[in-house]
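## retry 2 of 3
previous attempt timed out at serialization; input unchanged, resubmitting
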Amino acid sequence: MARLTINAAVREVDADPDTPLLWVLREQVGLTGTKYGCGIAACGACTVHIDGVATRACALPISALGPEQAIVTIEGLSPDGSHPLQQAWLALDVPQCGYCQAGMLMAAASLLAQNPSPTDADIDAEITNICRCGTYNRVRAAIKQAAAGGAAQRG
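## retry succeeded, writing output
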């Protein structure tokens, strides 16, 4: 049994210690907002926060985590979609297919928590998630809109 703190709730999960966090979140805990993309921590669809840091969950075994570490998934970013980034995403019609967007939002929230006024260069350096639809310009615009509206206080 592993004890993990996920979205502010301590959960006990019965999984092999080598099981990636992504599969524990999706299969054991039922939080399916975090997506599988590549399985090698390259695409970012599986991005969650570990103690506030954007982390790729597909390559992180649960044995590397303890109950004292705060894991936040897209479901924990805001219970009702009111986070400034989520609002900016909607206002600017960022997603096309939407598959990568949960990971993009989590990466963006981590960025704004660390840097409340990111430049284009900051965004390019920190948001390394892959979007097959190519919505990068809208992602950048939404991050800037959320930053202007105070997303850093909630991120």
